[in-house]
Design goal:
Elements lengths: L1 H18 L11 H4 L14 E7 L3 E5 L2 E6 L4 E6 L2 E9 L6 E8 L7 E6 L1 H64 L4 E2 L2 E10 L12 E8 L2 E9 L2 E8 L4 E10 L2 E10 L7 E13 L2 E11 L8 E8 L2 E4 L8 E2 L2 E11 L2 E14 L16 E4 L2
Parallel strand pairs: 1-7, 8-18, 14-22
Antiparallel strand pairs: 1-4, 2-3, 2-5, 5-6, 9-10, 9-21, 10-11, 11-12, 12-13, 13-14, 15-16, 16-17, 17-20, 18-19, 20-21
Length: 385
């Protein structure tokens, strides 16, 4: 009985096991499948190319105009692309004027792989900054050039106005001087007589001193007439005679070389120029010269067509007399008697000075023959009148 009971129990258990489906033995066969985990596979198993996008400036990344990712600075955003051509665009998050564009191609060979794609928006910003800086610098240069041109134009206008005012002032003084002269001409006494001078040169270059030596000359005055005799060397003598009524002059020259004397005479019209302006500026400084009370002055002749004939020199004059001369007014008189003078002239690189000092004055009646415009006998005559 016990045997049958045990047998029955065994049959029951066997029957139960037959009813419960035990896992097949092939579950235990997964071990070989687990070994494939260690195999090297492509990063992407699908038919796509993985692009790992990075940017040195935070930006929005567009593919063919469609926003695909917002890329934080120095972070990575992954995009999956199929084979084909794309247009990439990156726009800086904080400044939508900073834009980077590029065409990009994904080949069939790249499918199943990945690649870093670095966007250099900082260079775009730097380039824009440099361009803006260049434009600002160019604008600054243009503004500076314009300001400089305006300044020059203003200075020119100011200088022109200054010159016009100075010219107007000089003209006013000249007219005032002439009116005063005409008013007082009856009270002026014409000087008649002889004044002798000693002349010397100052600041002459060393290699030229042999040609610029001490000399003497005399001036003879008679109403409307002037005679100047210059003895520059022992071998030469020059005489200038001016007749301010006839407005003619005579120059007599005598040169003696190797015992032979050459005499020449030149007749010509006196140098009267319409644009010539003669002016005097007087100073409160006085001194006695050969018994005559003299005042310091600046004598100036300007406006000559020949620049070399423009004169400006310091001198001492006696204002009690008048002498013949040109340039002051139609009366052909100079309203003073010039004494000592210092005349600057250019010799080489130096500004030399011709200093003339009165050695004697003789007020006397002179013979009209001294002022004759008829050349003496024995002179070769040239008539340029």
């Amino acid at each position: 009985m016990r045997f049958f009971s045990v047998l029955f129990l065994c049959l029951f258990v066997f029957s139960a096991q037959a009813q419960v489906k035990l896992p097949p033995k092939q579950v235990e066969q997964k071990a070989p499948v687990k070994q494939t985990v260690t195999e090297v596979k492509p990063v992407n198993t699908g038919p796509v190319f993985t692009l790992k996008v990075m940017s040195n400036v935070g930006c929005k990344f567009y593919v063919d105009g469609e926003l695909k990712a917002t890329v934080a600075q120095d972070e990575i955003e992954k995009l999956q692309l199929k084979a084909g051509e794309y247009m990439f665009k990156a726009v800086a998050t904080e400044n939508n004027t900073v834009v980077f564009k590029e065409f990009f191609t994904v080949t069939k060979e790249q499918i199943g792989t990945e690649k870093f794609y670095k966007i250099d928006l900082q260079s775009v910003i730097d380039e824009a900054d440099q361009e803006a800086a260049a434009k600002r610098a160019a604008a600054q240069r243009i503004a500076e050039q314009k300001a400089a041109a305006q300044k020059i134009e203003f200075e020119r206008a100011e200088e022109k106005l200054r010159q016009e005012n100075a010219e107007a002032e000089r003209e006013a003084k000249r007219l005032e001087y002439e009116q005063e002269l005409i008013k007082n001409v009856a009270n002026l006494k014409h000087f008649e007589g002889k004044i002798s001078f000693e002349a010397d040169w100052e600041n002459v270059p060393e290699d030229m001193k042999a040609y610029y030596k001490k000399s003497t000359y005399s001036q003879y005055y008679k109403k409307n007439k002037l005679r100047i005799e210059i003895n520059s060397t022992e071998t030469s003598k020059t005489v200038f005679i001016y007749d301010y009524i006839k407005k003619e002059s005579l120059t007599l020259s005598e040169f003696t070389i190797a015992g032979k004397t050459t005499k020449s005479a030149t007749l010509q019209k006196t140098n009267t120029q319409k644009n010539q302006t003669v002016s005097m500026e007087y100073f409160d400084e006085f001194k006695s010269i050969a018994g005559f009370n003299c005042q310091k002055a600046k004598y100036k002749v300007s406006g000559n067509d020949n620049v070399a004939q423009n004169i400006e020199m310091s001198c001492y004059v006696n204002r009690s007399f008048t002498t013949p001369g040109e340039g002051f007014n139609e009366l052909n008189i100079t309203p003073f008697l010039m004494m000592d003078s210092k005349y600057p002239t250019k010799i080489g690189q130096n500004t030399a000075y011709y200093n003339a000092s009165v050695s004697s004055i003789s007020e006397e009646i002179l013979d009209d023959e001294l002022f004759s415009l008829t050349p003496p006998r024995g002179f070769t005559i040239t008539d340029n009148r």
